[in-house]
Write a structure and sequence with these properties.
Order of helices and strands: EEHEHHEEEEHHHHHHH
Oligomer: single chain
CATH class of the largest domain: Alpha Beta
Number of domains: 2
CATH architecture of the largest domain: 2-Layer Sandwich
Number of helices: 10
CATH superfamily of the largest domain: CorA soluble domain-like
Length: about 325
């Protein structure tokens, strides 16, 4: 899918392009390619003289491959977060700033892009050129990360109430661990996302491609990102605490089961001893004296030898 964005009356207008004839008269400040086909890349080459490499959004983490200038064009590759309920993920986006036009290439639509498109349509004079588009995308990315962090706070608060305020059985503990693991993964992705945004904005500042107002906006974005770092660090600590607390409750439940088996085995030792003694092939005087009452006597003795330890354990609180 190929979308071009043009400025009119200080607002950003979007137009979906389906052919080279539609693209030819356009004078965009931003060209967005979502999962572009080779044909659409060919239109870009014909219209703008820009060849988009086939591997432009490959997962290459080398610094030299993510931020560089070549043939008068600035190339930046950044990761953007998608906070999906099912599969949160980071999506690679390649930016090319060529002849005052920003080209973005990615495989799927991103919440940050939708947020910028909505704001640029509603707020006049928000964007003046292609560099503004790029900066506003990173600004929206930092804001999106902050909103996602607030969601993690809320979700962890729910888990905390379940774990710390209620009796936790194994099923509830398993659900809590699953929720905690998801929030830990999401928090890690936010940490990676803001780190990547910081690197991209720092590159733009070092490259001296920004005017004074844009440079100050870039500095503000970096300050916002720095404030997010302390929040992610705090959330990692909270996640580790809840993880340890949940695992501790699981261990307590397991210890209760083991304690019951231990108490039961100890309580059955006296009856076993009685049965072992009177099971020997010997003549016991008390049994000869009791006659027909010898069997009830041994059974009663075994029952009593089991009840007395159980009563003692109950009084000591070892059965609860």
């Amino acid at each position: 899918m190929l979308n071009v964005f043009t400025l009119a009356n200080g607002r950003l207008f979007q137009e979906e392009i389906d052919s080279l004839d539609e693209l030819t008269p356009a004078r965009p400040v931003w060209v967005d390619l979502e999962a572009p086909t080779p044909e659409e890349k060919g239109w870009i080459a014909v219209k703008f003289g820009l060849v988009i490499p086939a591997d432009i959004i490959d997962d290459d983490l080398e610094e030299s491959a993510r931020f560089y200038e070549e043939d008068g064009a600035v190339h930046i590759r950044s990761d953007f977060l998608i906070d999906d309920d099912e599969t949160p993920r980071n999506v690679r986006v390649a930016f090319i700033l060529h002849e005052n036009v920003l080209f973005s290439v990615h495989k799927e639509d991103l919440p940050v892009f939708r947020l910028l498109r909505m704001r640029a349509r509603r707020i006049p004079a928000l964007i003046e050129d292609a560099k503004d588009v790029l900066l506003k995308l990173y600004d929206a990315d930092a804001e999106y990360s902050a909103d996602t962090l607030e969601g993690i706070y809320d979700d962890l608060e729910k888990v905390s109430k379940k774990v710390l305020q209620n009796a936790v059985n194994d099923a509830a503990a398993a659900d809590a661990l699953a929720a905690i693991a998801r929030q830990e993964d999401l928090n890690g992705r936010i940490r990676r996302n803001v780190m990547d945004t910081r690197r991209a904005v720092s590159f733009m500042m070092r490259a001296r491609m920004l005017n004074a107002d844009q440079f100050e906006e870039a500095r503000q974005i970096l300050r916002d990102i720095d404030s997010l770092d302390s929040h992610t660090a705090f959330l990692f600590d909270k996640i580790n605490f809840l993880m340890d607390a949940t695992v501790g409750f699981i261990n307590i439940n397991q210890n209760k089961i083991i304690k019951i088996f231990s108490v039961a085995s100890v309580a059955l030792l006296p009856p076993t001893l009685v049965a072992s003694v009177y099971g020997m092939n010997l003549k016991f005087p008390e049994l000869l004296w009791l006659g027909d009452w010898s069997y009830p006597y041994t059974v009663a003795l075994m029952v009593a030898s089991a009840i007395v330890p159980m009563w003692y354990f109950y009084k000591r609180g070892w059965l609860t």
